């Protein structure tokens, strides 16, 4: 079975991660939240010098495309395989084509905003929702 196929089984049937696994999860979650913090810092100004999209957004497109299927499939207990990544490619490609048609450039405020929201969703979901759910109080 390829590594991208997920077997979504009943909650609680997998063994809980040990201390090292929890530290790795916590570190990855902290890194995702750190990236999300920087996304928030550039929110009103996606473009540098009014023309080019910030490298903060461009640099994580491949990482986001790799992670989006896991975010959707595991986060929402869906077995949609690589469809979330394919839909994301179509969404971002459609936004790029729209930007090219309306402004004459792929780098426009529209594509920057679409890219910002897409990345913000992925990394805040990974950093906040998944990790906070793991460490919440059992009585909540």
Give a concise summary:
With 140 residues, the chain is an all-alpha fold.
Question: Explain this structure to me?
Answer:
The protein has a domain at 47-135. 64% of the residues lie in helices and 3% in strands. It is built from five helices and two strands. It has helices spanning 19-41, 55-58, 61-75, 83-103, 109-135, and strands spanning 47-48, 52-53. It has a two-stranded antiparallel ribbon. The N and C termini lie far apart (37 Å).
List the helices and strands and how they pair.
Blueprint: H1 19-41, E1 47-48, E2 52-53, H2 55-58, H3 61-75, H4 83-103, H5 109-135
Helix pairs in contact: 1-5, 3-4, 3-5, 4-5
Number of helices: 5
Strands in their spatial order, largest beta sheet: 1-2
The ordered string of helix (H) and strand (E) elements is HEEHHHH
Portion in helices: 55-70%
Radius of gyration: 17 Å
Give the distance, in angstroms, between the N- and C-terminal Cα atoms.
37 Å
Supply database-style keywords.
flat; 5 helices; mainly alpha; two-stranded antiparallel sheet; 2 strands; 3% strand; 140 residues; disordered C terminus
């Amino acid at each position: 079975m390829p590594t991208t196929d997920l077997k979504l089984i009943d909650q609680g049937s997998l063994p809980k991660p040990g201390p090292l696994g929890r530290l790795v999860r916590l570190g990855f979650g902290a890194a995702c939240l750190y990236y999300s913090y920087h996304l928030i810092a550039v929110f009103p100004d996606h473009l540098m010098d009014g023309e080019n999209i910030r490298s903060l957004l461009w640099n994580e497109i491949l990482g986001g495309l790799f992670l989006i299927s896991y975010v959707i499939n595991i986060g929402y207990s869906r077995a949609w395989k690589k469809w979330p990544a394919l839909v994301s490619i179509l969404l971002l490609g459609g936004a790029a084509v729209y930007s090219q048609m309306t402004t004459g450039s792929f780098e426009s405020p529209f594509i920057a905003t679409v890219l910002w929201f897409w990345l913000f969703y992925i990394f805040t979901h990974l950093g906040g929702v998944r990790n906070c759910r793991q460490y919440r109080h059992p009585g909540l």
